Amino acid sequence: MVRQKRKISDGTVGYGRPPKATQFKKGKSGNPRGRPKGSRSIGLVLQEVLGQRIAVTENGKTRRLPALEVMLRRLANDAMRSEPVALKLMLSLFDRYGESPEATIKLDEILEEDKAILANFLKMPTKGAGRTQTRKSGAHRDVG
Predict the structure, then answer these.
(1) Which of the residue ranges 13-22, 71-80, 125-134 has the most confident prediction, judged by mean pLDDT?
(2) What is the C-alpha to C-alpha distance for residues 54 and 69, in angstroms, rounded to an integer?
(3) How far apart are CA 140 and CA 133, in angstroms?
(4) Average per-residue pLDDT in the chain?
(5) Separation of alpha carbons 118 and 125, rounded Å
(6) Are strands 53-58 and 61-66 parallel, antiparallel or unpaired?
(7) Helix (H, G, I), strand (E, B) or coil at 58
(8) End-to-end CA distance of the chain, in Å?
(9) Which tens digit of pLDDT belongs to each residue from 41-98?
(10) Helix intervals (H) in 1-144
């Protein structure tokens, strides 16, 4: 069976070929007015909502905190009450965002102290110098 190629005429209508009357005219946009100027993206609205300050009473004092901070504090309180979903979410948030510049500064200071301790240790003469221990058998062998 041999398929014959159909000759496509200008008036053919079908998939991907809308009628000429409804096609966009040359030089005209399919969205002539575009996005309205007053509309905002979801991300912008979300940032605005989470940054909104809310009055919160803590220990008898009223403070105004950003909504995001209030939500995180509430999540932490729920996690401390051993609510499994809150606990899991709080730990995953801590794993992702827990590193703070203050913690790394302290870690660097600790590392400097460790380096100094190791340097002093390496300067000290050790007992039994010249002997090493093998890992598997625990037997000693002399190094000459």
Answers:
(1) 71-80
(2) 10
(3) 5
(4) 78
(5) 13
(6) antiparallel
(7) strand
(8) 91
(9) 899 999 999 999 999 998 999 999 999 999 999 999 999 999 999 999 999 888 888 8
(10) 42-51, 67-80, 84-97, 101-123
